[in-house]
């Protein structure tokens, strides 16, 4: 893998001062004070890297839906904080002992990388069970209250301070930043959802229904298609349904339509799988209770429903236990992901971005000082912040 030379922005002071790193000009973080307030630029002239820490210069960050929910007051947040957890950047400094990527290689200065949203402890019962994304002392980039010593804790900054224990994945130089940045949330979560599904039903030659055609739903359509599945995507917006066809869907559904209408679910399933076809895998990324009900009634005997879109509180859903028993159904919940899913996401994007319009899903790129404008929303699945 080619590694570019490091730009001379970061210098280390004399050894007697420890592993403090100074950036010139100073690293800058856009700090969100709380609901109803604009972001404030905060200079961070010095960063103290503990053993295993990494300092990364951010190339591009994308705005995730959870960032939008935070500033709208729909996601509880400990403020002030630096939002942003989807980004790609280049390593400019290492703490003592260095760090390793998920495949066991040593991280190099100048290396282009993405990193996990989660910082697990690695030793608690959940980490030992293989659930580091649910670590009992979990810290998350773009979610934690800004604190002394970890000011650069989110993607909306010129630099990010990666703590020891963060999953880091090296990325190719030729893949556009707009493709790679969402890997740290959207793409890796889809990889986790597909793994949850395939532990029950194989994707190859399966009929799959995806609810929701924003970034995650589109990514799921492409990944499932490449794994040999026939994919049907449901979304109420015509423009999103059109995008789904470009990401491999063989048919699309308007969930507001009658099932047997030209844009209904039964019609789409027949187009994708023949008469009386029923999906064996259903992936819910919309967060709508109505979508969950629709998928439950449509799924075939022995099928699996993966819930990955209900990240915010919503209405209760009434479910008849007899439906699960007689149809031998499995429901899996997926929230964020483990390091292997980020690795799988990067491997997939390194090739798939040339077959599917992943780069086109990121719209306008805003300057760092314009982060509030970026958070105002867009018709694109993502907009970007470019430090």
What distance lies between the first and last C-alpha atoms, to the nearest angstrom? 25 Å
Structural class from helices and strands? alpha/beta
Order of helices and strands: EEEEHEEEHEEEHHEHEHEHEHEHEHEHE
Any idea what the CATH superfamily of the largest domain is called? Medium-chain alcohol dehydrogenases, catalytic domain
For the record, the CATH architecture of the largest domain stands as Alpha-Beta Complex
What is the name of the CATH class of the largest domain? Answer: Alpha Beta
Fraction of residues in helix: 10-25%
Strand content: 15-25%
What is the residue-mean pLDDT, rounded to a whole number? Answer: 92
Number of strands: 18
Low-confidence stretches: 5-18
What gyration radius follows from the Cα positions, in whole Å? 21 Å
Main sheet properties:
7 strands, mixed
Count structural domains: 2
Q: How does the overall form come out from the CA principal axes?
A: globular
Enzyme class: oxidoreductase
Cofactor: Zn(2+)
Family: Belongs to the zinc-containing alcohol dehydrogenase family.
Keywords: Metal-binding, NAD, Oxidoreductase, Zinc
